[in-house]
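Troubleshooting: if your tokenizer reports a length mismatch, compare your output against this known-good record of 284 residues.
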Amino acid sequence: MQAVDFQLGGVEDRLAGWRSGSGIPVLVLHGGPGLSDYTESLVAELGPSYETIRYQQRGLEPSTTSGPFDVETQVDDVLRVMDHLQLDRPLVLGHSWGGHLAMHLIATHPERVQGTLIVDPLGAVPDGGEEDLGRNLAERASPEAAARSAELDARALQGEGTEEDAIEGLRLVWPGYFADPKTAPPMPPMRMSVAAYSETFTSIRQHFGNQTLVRLLPTVRVATAFLLGQESPIPNSHGMASAALIEGARVDVLAHCGHLPWLEQPGSVRAALDRLVGRAVPSA
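Known-good structure output:
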């Protein structure tokens, strides 16, 4: 486990994370939900012009392992990190579920954010691409791997099974997240909180039912850009439908790229962030 650079809160609400580089602050929200932070490899790409701030979302150490794990609590956690580090309207970069979380952040607290880069997210319009994601990952795996992964994922979504089971299910379909599964890099070491995964998805689905983002995002006036992988298992249509809800949102689609652009096309996330900085409104 990495040594933490900052920590806030007590045992029941502790959040811990890492700061790297200097320059324009960028708060990075990792995906999952319930996964350990895997965005360390972004740090080198974003430096030296950006200060990269990452934190482990609740559910796993070094942050609290306690809930609640609903969307509202996770948005509040983002704000707590901003307050603790005295981040005045930072840029926010969210990947996958982290991109979905970033949309909830700007939908409810747009005044706290200067600009948002949303990278291949779970979309804002129900069901955000969740069903397509499962189907496409299954099609890119062997029938045996797909069946086993689906079984383990279904158990995890019900809050059942072990962390090891959940990680096994992810590992079985990991190559399918890339444009060319045959050349996918090995899955990095990861951990998962089954409770955070299950309960956060329950909350996400409740918000889909209430059309929270569909109602609120059209009111947002935050410089926003979407970076999508053309060959992602989450079809681009879901990201585009999300971007269409936000006035002036830019969409860039990377050819021959899957779900993790900084691994498949190094420099692409940095370039998208540079473009966003040119459009973001400076702090007052």
